[in-house]
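#struct-help
A.M.: can someone run this one for me? Single chain, 368 residues.
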Amino acid sequence: MRFITGKAGRTVAVATAAVAALALAGCSSSEAEPEGSSTGAAGTTEETAAAVEPGTYGDFAVQLSWIKNEEFSGEFFADANGYYTDAGFASVSLTPGPSTGAAELLSGTADVALSDAVSIGSAVAAEEAPLKIIGTTYQKNPFTVLSLADGGNIATVDDMVGKKIGVQASNTSLFEALLAANGLTDGDVTIVPVEYDPAPLTNGEVDGFIAYLTNEAITVAAAGYDTVNLPFADNGLPFVAETVTVTDQSIEENRDALKAFLYAEILGWTDAVNDPAEGARLAYEVYGSDLGLDPANSEAGAIAQAEDLVVSEETVANGLFTISDELQASTLASLAGAGIELEAADLFDMSLLAEVYEEHPELIAYAG
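D.P.: on it. Structure tokens below:
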């Protein structure tokens, strides 16, 4: 059985390639006008946001890390419910990936990139790229070693020993970091080069397959297989993903616009957490209507990310998108395991988000 290509391979990028590549196309999400979008959980931004003139911040470009699926339901809500407009943007374009966003940020074709700590950390460490993470959608990364219960049945790290693991080329260093974090080496397993289609797993060519909890893990299970997951985040390799990433120059020169964007994002993801089914609908019926997304799988992915990846004890206490000192430290430790050595100040600037929550403390209670 064949599957639609997954996205697991986009996370670990060679920094020089990311810097050199340029995005050539984009499309404005503001052009889409979905019917029947749900009322925002936080009301309208006019009720809570600092007053700004319409269009104050002009047009704003966001580079997505992947296609327009349910992974970006918070952005879809922010657009559909007018949060971007109310926050002062004339328009906000959502350009689909796959992309790490580093090249687009450095070339000036994107104002914000939704990326991940590994890709951005690679660019910062290898190229001294002037980039910073100012928030994160996912508190936990969604990487997993996917297996079949009647096959590899990899439920623990020790279960990998002696097994054949399908690993995409771009994920090899990350998988090796997972092994190292658990006292193993690539000599303890057989790494089998694969692409992003999980067919080698279902065909029995490999015992385990590097996948996303919100993507291939769902599609394989939906195809009728009894699946087992070994999440990286729960097994020694936690790091933030779908990070809100910007340039140092933008922080210096466009601070108010970035704070307005974060404000609108918090409202959008508040809606996505509270109504994942509607977020999935916005993906498969509106923003990703040309992708042939499966509604059931989209809804399952939206629910999984809302319950397991976007929220945590940290977000309950301090709000969505926050990255605690502890989470920064664990992310940096994970990067070090992949050979990326950085200090927190090299990669993170949480001051903008802190100011947003200081100015709008009502946003913290996203669950109502």
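A.M.: thanks! The radius of gyration is 20 Å.
D.P.: also worth noting: Residues 10 and 256 are 31 Å apart (CA to CA).
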